[in-house]
Amino acid sequence: MPSDTKANLELAGFNDDKEDNDILPAPASASPAPKRLTSSTIIPIWILLSSSVIIYNNYLYNSLDFRYPVFTVTWHLSFAAIGTRVLQRTTRLLDGTKDVYMDRTLFLTRILPIGILFSGSLVLSNTAYLYLSVSYIQMLKAFTPVAILLISWTFRLQDPNRKLALIVLMISSGVALASHGELRFHLGGFLVQASAVCFEASRLVLIQILLHNLKMDPLVSLHYYAPVCAVINLCILPFTEGLAPFRELPSIGPFILLTNAAVAFLLNVAAVFLVGVGSGLVLTLAGVFKDILLITGSVLLFGNQITPLQVFGYSIALGGLVMFKTSGGK
Fold first, then answer.
1. What phi and psi values does residue 18 have, to the nearest 5 degrees?
2. Environment class of 95 (CB within 10 Å of its CB; exposed 0-12, middle 13-18, buried 19+)
3. Are 289 and 13 in contact (CB under 8 A)?
4. DSSP states of 222-252
């Protein structure tokens, strides 16, 4: 992998969310955002928004019984596509688009393949909330670095070493223990989330390969990917959920629909400021704290049950995750 994998994978850890996975990691050559806000201000805002996206989506799917993740993701992406274009015309947050020359070849060979993987990651990760608890899904997401390493080793993008092997062992065993301790294990949901992890890991690896020479921060990336993914999802919507979500819209109302998409979009705006503050270690620890806070919140808000075995297993996985990010994935 390119030498600056570390910066991108640090941001990858902040992607949980993106609808769950709502932040697009910046390609390797992305320039840091100006420090307009201090880390003590933007990191709590990012943690709040990132947790809110996941909790709000879970509330929508399970408490309000609006069980249409493909429609929800499509709506979020459509909102983001419009929102980024409004910001482009009214603010300087998307000045980075001036550094990207987008032509047909670039779109078909780089943007579209990554957009397909991004779309699959979002749909699958949101679908998992129909079957698994928020806390367990967060534990499974810890496996993403392992998937990245396995893909990189398979295609000879990176050479394995003892330290990486230890990290793979720690995360894998930790996630395995967390799965064994899950009280409401659902095989279908587990396979869906595992597929989402594979799609997300493949997307991050492909970003390193295809976009390493482009300057795109998370919001600029969203500007290009949101319309692509929205169109892809619109094409699969008739074959997955059909017209059912449209018939159910009156039951949730415009307020829920708009605020749900707005929170997801604001998370991406916060990501622009997050890129420019704090060291890699600070951002990594912030991501770990967010995950712990989210798991605790899911227990308090939704009554998710976690066992001592899961706490032990997830602690091991988090240790491996911190090692992976602070070492730059090397």
1. 45, 145
2. exposed
3. no
4. HHHHHHHHHHHHHHHHHHHTTTHHHHHHHHH
142 touches 318 (CB < 8 A): yes
Percent of the chain with pLDDT over 90: 57
Name residue 20's beta-bridge partners: 18
* φ, ψ dihedrals at 222, nearest 5°: -60, -35
In three-state secondary structure terms, 131 is coil
3-state SS class at 85: helix
Number of H helices, E strands in the chain: 13, 0
| Three-class secondary structure of residue 70 per DSSP | helix
Cα–Cα distance between 145 and 200 in angstroms, integer? 10
Name which of 225, 224, 253 is nearest 60 in CA terms: 253
Model pTM score: 0.84
Write out pLDDT tens, residues 12-39: 333 444 544 443 334 434 444 444 567 7
* Contact criterion met (CB below 8 Å) for 94 and 88: yes
Integer Cα distance of 205 and 280 in angstroms: 19
Neighbours of 289 (CB within 10 A): 12
Both tokens assigned to 205:
């690896």
- Residue showing tokens 């596509």: 81
CB 138 within 8 A of CB 193: no
Count CA within 13 A, CB hemisphere, residue 157: 20
CB of 23 closer than 8 Å to CB of 218:
yes
Burial class (CB in 10 A: 0-12, 13-18, 19+), 233: buried
